[in-house]
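lol so apparently i was supposed to do this last week
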Amino acid sequence: MEIERIQLQKHGDNSGMLIALEEERNVPFVIRRVYYIFATKNDVHRGRHAHRHLHQLAVAVRGSVTFLLDDGSGPVEVVLDDPSHGLMLGRMVWRELYDFSDDCVLMVLADQLYDQSDYITDYADFLREVGGSMYPEDMVACQGR
Ligand code: TYD
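anyway here it is w/ thymidine-5'-diphosphate bound
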């Protein structure tokens, strides 16, 4: 589950919609941090890093954004443009974010507090690390969640 799109259950009717995110229910980890990105310029690129240990769930609660994702097997593009779509990002996923709509609000839930030392910001370093032995160990850890 290094990269997975999930459909979030909507509750609602003519009066509006509601989505609940609950730890270890529809969010498959303990939620230790929530942050959100907004007021982005359309031509900016964000991200350009991977995390050694962090798991995250991203939801474009408003607007849209494109993710370029690479778990070492080659890049894929994922567009988030629906508040009922979640994007699960496991550890060791290189991500780049761009094509933010003017109104985009991207909310991210994470299983760790902010820790700069968890970042890999050099793509060549990332490729070296995913080619090593860390990746299979993580897959075992994820399955145990
Ligand atoms: P960064 O992770 O580099 O954002 P992006 O990958 O979207 O470009 O974070 C931008 C700044 O915000 C940086 O100075 C670190 C800070 N920050 C926090 O203080 N706490 C957080 O939880 C996050 C994600 C970032």
